[in-house]
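> forwarded from #structure-qc
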């Protein structure tokens, strides 16, 4: 039979180990941000799923994301929609509307965090769980809207992060009406060469072009 002090000592060590190995939501966000800031280039495939709670229906789209520092990125969907920046100009194309908006690039590099997560302005970490996603060990970060006082609100966000690579793996946002938007990433490629033509926009024929670029001094 174990002595009481031996049991107490074992419990203390076990509790201390759990505390020592714990990681906070803020630390996870910081680790992911550090990883993204270190990339010279990055690409990944993603799937976007949207669930309409009122209709009980779902829709999904697949896409690809490319980024290359300091100022190149491309996000495209399988329906033809795309946002492309080559460091000087940005094109935002909506295939259904047959319209592209051309604007001056303002220097906002879109990393996977900016594309898929609206965290810094609206959400705060609530809890962290260890889980698996598609066979990979992950942290699942649960977030709630900042300043949320209504305890009956269902609005929340979940973020899955690979424990070893610190990759952003999945983002799920639940609205108060129970609509759910989920982004799942795969095929992560870090610091691999991305050709210049990936960041060029091939203008389709017979579309409406809205040019919002500021004229260069002397061109007016």
């Amino acid at each position: 039979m174990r002595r009481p002090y031996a049991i107490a000592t074992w419990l203390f060590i076990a509790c201390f180990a759990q505390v020592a190995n714990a990681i906070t939501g803020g630390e996870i966000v910081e680790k992911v941000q550090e990883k993204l800031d270190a990339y010279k280039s990055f690409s990944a495939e993603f799937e976007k799923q949207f669930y309409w709670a009122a209709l009980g229906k779902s829709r999904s789209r697949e896409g690809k994301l490319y980024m290359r520092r300091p100022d190149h990125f491309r996000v495209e969907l399988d329906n033809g929609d795309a946002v492309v920046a080559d460091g000087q100009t940005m094109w935002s194309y909506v295939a259904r509307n047959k319209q592209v908006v051309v604007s001056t690039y303002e220097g906002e590099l879109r990393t996977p965090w900016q594309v898929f997560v609206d965290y810094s302005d609206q959400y705060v970490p609530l809890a962290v769980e260890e889980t698996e996603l598609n066979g990979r060990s992950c942290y699942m970060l649960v977030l709630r809207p900042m300043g949320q006082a209504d305890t009956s609100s269902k609005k929340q966000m979940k973020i899955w992060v690979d424990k070893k690579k610190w990759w952003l793996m999945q983002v799920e946002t639940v609205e108060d009406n129970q609509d759910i938007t989920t982004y799942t990433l795969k095929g992560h490629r870090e610091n691999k060469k991305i050709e210049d033509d990936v960041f060029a926009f091939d203008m389709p024929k017979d579309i409406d072009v809205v040019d919002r670029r500021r004229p260069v001094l002397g061109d007016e």
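QC bot note: Helices lie at 4-21, 25-38, 112-116. The chain is about 15% helix and 45% strand.
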